[in-house]
Amino acid sequence: SAYYSNISPFYYTEQNIITTMNYVENKGNITVNGFTLASELSVSGITTNIKVDYHNVINSGSISVYSINTTTTAANTLNVSGITKALSVGRIMENSVNYGNIIVAAISGSSNVYIGGLVNSNVSGTPNLKTVPLVATIGILNSVNEGDISTTLNSSTWGIAGTNNTFAGGLATMNSGSIQNSANIGNITISNRTRESSSPTLTYSTDVY
Question: What is the model's pTM?
């Protein structure tokens, strides 16, 4: 097994200090494959720091995570996202786009897998909106995911091969904050590889979301 916890092209700080990213783009592809998790693993197109404000940020690089064994340890969750793992309380992501396709394939084990076009978790939002029209000032605003989410790399490397619970979302895998004037226009195709001879598949395809 190998020990990795945070993989992203820009930066990660253990203190997770509050930072701001303005007019930033990643064009590089990210590939992570071939090992057994020893802890939670997060892979993001921009940064895995959770206390970041994003203004006009773009990820156009593809993300491929495959042939990973999450083991039977519940804490060994796998998080894959186009922009960042989490948008924490009080933070903003505005005018940002993920163009990169996200592939998470041949994942074995029994831990949870979270896949998000922009983020895995959004807990930032404007509470108790009472103004008319309702306008959020923090959270995910005016942002788009155009990248496809898939569990197929090729004909031999595909699917969730273990008993992992897999959660996928075009914008956010999980949301308890504000998402406003935003859209997912990427396709989402998730396959559960229960045995070699069949591939039960859930496909969601849309031009407007």
Answer: 0.90
- Spatial separation of the C-alpha atoms in residues 98 and 96, rounded to whole Å: 7
Q: Specify whether the CB–CB gap between 115 and 167 falls below 8 A.
A: yes
Q: How far apart are CA 98 and CA 114, in angstroms?
A: 17
- Considering only CA atoms, which of 98, 101, 95, 70 is closest in space to residue 84? 98
Helix (H, G, I), strand (E, B) or coil at 107: strand
Evaluate the omega torsion of the peptide bond into residue 9 and state whether it is cis, within 30 degrees of 0.
no
Q: DSSP class of residue 25?
A: E
Q: HSE (CB half, 13 Å, CA atoms) of 38?
A: 7
* Per-residue DSSP letter, 201: E
Question: Per-residue pLDDT tens for 47-71?
Answer: 999 999 999 999 999 999 999 999 9
The two structure tokens encoding residue 179: 């998402």
- Residue among 175, 85, 55, 169 nearest 125 (CA): 175
Q: What is the pLDDT of residues 105-132, one digit of tens each?
A: 999 999 999 999 999 999 999 876 666 6
Between 196 and 56, residue with greater pLDDT: 56
Q: Quote the DSSP letter at residue 75.
A: T
